[in-house]
Amino acid sequence: MVTARTQVKEIIKEANVGVDNIGADFMDKLDEKVKQLILDAVRRAKENNRRTVMGRDV
Q1: Closest among 43, 32, 49, 14 to 58, alpha carbons compared
Q2: How far is the C-alpha of 38 from the C-alpha of 44, rounded, in Å?
Q3: CA distance 49 to 52
Q4: What is the CA radius of gyration of the chain?
Q5: What are the two backbone dihedrals, phi and then psi, of residue 11, each rounded to the nearest 5 degrees?
Q6: Distances from the Cα of 22 to the Cα of 14, 36, 55, angstroms
Q7: pLDDT tens-digit profile, the chain (58 residues)
Q8: How many other C-beta atoms can be found within 10 angstroms of the C-beta atom of residue 17?
Q9: Three-state secondary structure along the chain?
Q10: Whether the predicted model's global pTM rises above the 0.85 cut
């Protein structure tokens, strides 16, 4: 099973900008951002009278 942390590290490596490590607080802050992104998308779906969250809600 691939963890989110592993996926984030892969994305950072693919960026190829010389950044190699993730700070201790990075994943917590990322989780907060992702949660807010999801909640915003859910709100937009509801505002459009849908019960399905779609890519366009992001």
Answers
A1: 43
A2: 10
A3: 9
A4: 15
A5: -65, -45
A6: 14, 21, 28
A7: 889 999 999 999 999 999 989 999 999 999 999 999 999 999 999 999 999 999 999 9
A8: 8
A9: CCCHHHHHHHHHHHHCCCCCCCCCCHHHHHHHHHHHHHHHHHHHHHHCCCCCCCHHHC
A10: no
36 token code pair: 């807010």
Q: Which two tokens stand for residue 17?
A: 């900008």
Vertex 44 angle, CA 53 and 56, to 5°: 55
Side chain identity at 58, as an amino acid letter? V
Single-letter code of the amino acid located at 43: R
